[in-house]
Amino acid sequence: MDANGDGVGDTPYVIDADNQDRYPLMNPYLPYHDIALANVTLSKTTVGEGYKMVINGDIENQGDCIETFDITLYANSTIIGTFALNQWAKVRSGFPFIWNTTGFAKGYYNISAYISPVGGESDTDDNAFTGGWVFVTVAGDVTGFGGTVDGTCDMRDIGAVCGKFMTPPSGPDWDPNMDINDDGVIDMRDIGIACNNFMKA
Asked: Could you give the count of Cα atoms lying within 13 Å of 184 in the half-sphere of its Cβ?
C-alpha cells in the first residue's frame, strides 16, 4: 500500500526470514531515453568550391541510459554525412565533421543536423538543429558589397586575404573565411589561390 502516493510502499516487503525491504518501490523502474542536439556551429560562412570546412555539433544525452544513435548532416536537403555515435547518460559532448564541398554548385546552403530517435524516446523536438548559412563560391571570393560575398574573386578579395596575412587563429583579427584552404593559417598559399582565381566567378 502507498497511502501518500510517493511511490514507496508503507509496509516492508519480506524477502526471506532474515531480510526485508523497508522501502519497497511500488512501481517498476522505467529507463528514460532522450538525445538532444544542443548546438551546430560552422567554422566559416564562405568556402571555396571544392574546398573543405568544419561543422561542429554538441549532443546531450538527457536520459539515463547509454545510447547508440545515428546523426545525419544536411546542406539544404542534400545529405553530406551520416555516422553513428555512442554517448553515456547525462553527458554533453561535441563532434567535428569535415564537409568537402566538391561537387556542390555555387550558392547558399543551409547547414543542419538531425539525430534519429533512440528506442523509447518520446521528446524528439530537440533532435534537429540548424547551424546557419554557408556560401559556396569560387575559391578566393571572400568579400563584396555590404559585407557579403559577391561571387567573383577580384582585387578586393586578394587585398582582404593579404590584410590577414599570418594572422594567428588565436588572434582577435582572425577570419576563418580568409583561410581559403582551411589549413589553420592565412599564408601565401591562400593568397596564391585567390590570385589564380582572379576575376573568376
From this structure: 1
Report whether 121 contacts 34 (CB < 8 A): yes
Within this chain, do residues 157 and 88 fall inside the same structural domain, yes or no? no
The residue type at 142: V
Q: End-to-end CA distance of the chain: give it in Å, rounded.
A: 77
**Residues 126 and 177 reside in one and the same domain:** no
pLDDT digits (tens, 9 = 90+) for 140-167: 999 865 456 778 899 999 999 999 999 9
Say which residues have a Cβ less than 8 Å from residue 20's Cβ, sequence separation at least 6. Answer: 12, 13, 14
> Which domain CATH number covers 122?
2.60.40.10
Distance in angstroms (rounded) separating the CA atoms of residues 174 and 78:
30
Q: Output the pTM of the full model.
A: 0.80
CA–centroid distance for 97 within its chain: 7
Per-residue pLDDT, 7 = 62
Tell whether 94 and 60 lie within a shared domain.
Answer: yes
Quote the pLDDT of residue 18: 84
Distance CA 200, CA 198 (A): 5
Going from the C-alpha of 104 to that of each of 75, 136, 177, the distances in angstroms are 9, 8, 18
Q: Are residues 69 and 129 in the same domain?
A: yes
